[in-house]
């Protein structure tokens, strides 16, 4: 007897799990977290020009641009395809921590002078990204909706 081959993508438990994640993603809290993370990433990317250190600390400028774009892309992915991207939610808090410590680490490798504006910019923005990333990671672990019933399919 030949059994039909079922793709893991079509498995009922996978579909149910994606539905749960989609329900979590549609909550006002999730939408707020995704939107704020997107804005925080965009701000981090443009902050060297906003604060005015793009010519003084080119290493930090490139760092903030790349990290900010990464955070913004991840936030956009979470907002549009949470069921498929939630596994990357741990990356956002890591990028937040990196944004906090990067002024000192980039300065050590590039020799740029730091000022209070650069440090405050990265520390505050990094803390915001860290908090939003931890919230997104917590949502990834949250299971909403009814618990599965019955045995294995």
Structural class of the secondary elements? mainly alpha
The average pLDDT value, as a whole number, equals: 83
Largest sheet: none
Dominant shape: elongated
Distance between the termini: 20 Å
Q: How many β-strand stretches?
A: 0
* Structural Rg: 20 Å
Contiguous runs where pLDDT drops below 50 for at least 5 residues: 143-153
H/E element string? HHHHH
Give the helix tally: 5
Estimate what percentage of residues fall within beta strands.
under 5%
Helical residues, percent: over 70%
Task: Offer a concise description of the structure.
This protein has about 150 residues and is an all-alpha fold. It is built from five helices and no strands.
Key terms for this structure?
74% helix; 153 residues; mainly alpha
Task: Describe the 3D structure.
With 153 residues, the chain is mostly helical. It has five helices and no strands. The chain has helices at residues 12-25, 28-52, 58-85, 91-110, 116-141. The longest helix is centred in the middle third of the chain and has 28 residues, at 58-85. The model is unreliable at 143-153 (pLDDT under 50).
